[in-house]
Amino acid sequence: MHNACLAPSWIRTEKMAKKVTKIGVLTSGGDAPGMNACIRAVVRTGIFHGLEVFGITRGYAGMIDNDIQKLESRSVANIIQRGGTILKTARCKEFLTPEGRKKAYKNLKSHGINGLVVIGGDGSFKGAQIFSNEFDIPCIGIPGTIDKDIAGTDFTIGFDTAVNTAIEAIDKIRDTADAHDRLFIVEVMGRDAGYIALHSGIGTGAEHILIPEKKTDVEAVLASLQEKEKRKKLVNIVVVAEGDDFGGGNDLAELIKERIPGFDIRVAILGHIQRGGSPTSMDRLIASRMGYSAVECLLEGRINVMVGIVNNKMHFTPLDKAIKAKQRISEEWLKIVKILAS
Ligand code: F6P
Known about the structure:
By secondary structure, this protein is an alpha/beta fold. 40% of the residues lie in helices and 17% in strands.
C-alpha cells in the first residue's frame, strides 16, 4: 500500500486515485508538426487500455463550445505523416476566465471525461494547471511547440521538423547568396526563444546567430562584418530569431546598409513555413512515445505533469515547473558559432 506521506505530490495515493475511464485530448497554441502523430498515439493507447477517447476541437475553445467527439482507432488512421493538427488549435482568451473554465468543465462532465491530455506549449500548460486545480480532472501535458522553450524535456514535438525546414531554406539561400556575393539576413521563428535560430544557424554555417536569450552586441556584429568585407568575404549568412532584442531581420539589414554600404544585402523572413510540413522521423518518434506515455500516466494516477524525454528516457515534470523554467542556451554552443564562422 502507498504511504501518502512518501508519495510525490504529482502521484495520487491509491486512496485518492479515481479510475480514469474516459479521456479527452486537445491541441492548443501554435501548431507543430508531429501533433497528429501524438494524437494518434494517445487515441490508440487509450483504446488499447479499454478507455474511451474524445477529441476536443480547437483546444480550450472547443472545450468551452462543447466541440467534442468520440474518436475511434480509425479516426486517427493515415495522419502520422501529416503536419498541422486534425483537432485544430487555438489560443483561447475565454479559458483565462473562471466562467470560461466552468463551462469547459461542465462540457467535459457531460461526456463523462475524467482525464485530459493537453498537447501544446507553456501557455497551454498554464491553462491545464489552473483547470486541474479548480476541478477534479487530472491533466497531462505533452510539449508540442516548434520553439523548444520548455524545461523538463530535451525536445518538443515539432522542433526538429522546424529546424530542418529552416536548414533546407537557408541552404537554398546560400546558393543564391554565393552566386551574387551577398549578405543574407535570415529571420526565423522564435518570439522568446532562440533554439530554431541556434540549431539552424549552426547547421548551415551561419556567420552570426542572434537570439532573444543573449543581449545582441550589434557593434560587435558590425565590426566582424566590416572585417570580413575587408578580406573580401562577401557571402555571409546572419540568422536572427524574430524575438531578438535588437529587432528582426529588416531592422538589422537597415543598420548594416547604413554602416557598411559595401555589402549587397537581402532579407529572407522564413515565417510560417517553419510550422508546417510532414514531421521528421524524430518528431514522429517522440510524439508517439510521449502520447503513449501520457495515457500511461493517467492510468497510473499521475496528475499535472508534463511528459518529456531527457537523455532518451521518459521524464516527468510537474506542470508548474515546466511552465516557469526555460531551457538554458549553452554558452559552449555560442562559442562554437564564433569559432566556426571565421
Ligand atoms: O510558438 C510558436 C510560434 O511559431 C513562435 O515561434 C511564433 O512567434 C509564434 O508561434 C507565431 O504565432 P502566430 O502563428 O499566432 O502568429
